[in-house]
Design brief:
Number of helices: 5
Shape: globular
Radius of gyration: 14 Å
CATH class: Alpha Beta
Structural class: mainly alpha
Helix content: 40-55%
CATH architecture: 3-Layer(aba) Sandwich
Length: 132
């Protein structure tokens, strides 16, 4: 689940927040480190890996929430307005990342009220869009 309000753990760093889902299922620490570094790179957070959650911008917090949701490679992700507080360019980057992940290995339900973002996704990607 990717929440609108991030649900980050304030006393953990970016890297620790992202690693947490794998730690609670007792994943091998060397695998955790490798996966976290890969997702940090993919979400453009490598330079922020040792920063505590409260010291991040909204955009950075959103990327951490997305990275944490993706780290375990779930079969299904529900993204509840994952771009609600972001500028258009950043929203497009988030949509592109989620669609890339969707095409690679899982189902994503992306809930948004951003019509411009829907138009962008329709124009750039061949994905199913359901308007309600």
């Amino acid at each position: 689940m990717i929440y609108q309000d991030f649900k980050l753990i304030d006393w953990k760093t970016v890297k620790e927040n992202i690693a947490y889902p794998l730690e609670i299922i007792w994943e091998d620490p060397s695998k955790i480190d490798k996966k976290v570094n890969e997702i940090l790179y993919k979400t453009e957070l490598m330079s922020k890996k040792d920063v505590l959650a409260p010291h991040l911008s909204w955009w950075e917090k959103q990327r951490v929430a997305i990275a944490r949701a993706l780290i375990g490679e779930p079969e299904f992700i529900l993204a509840d307005e994952p771009t609600w507080n972001l500028d258009q360019e950043t929203s497009k980057k988030i949509a592109d990342l989620l669609i890339e992940v969707n095409k690679a290995w899982n189902t994503i339900v992306f809930v948004t009220h951003d019509i411009q973002l829907l138009d962008y996704v329709k124009a750039k990607h061949n994905v199913k869009i359901i308007n309600m």
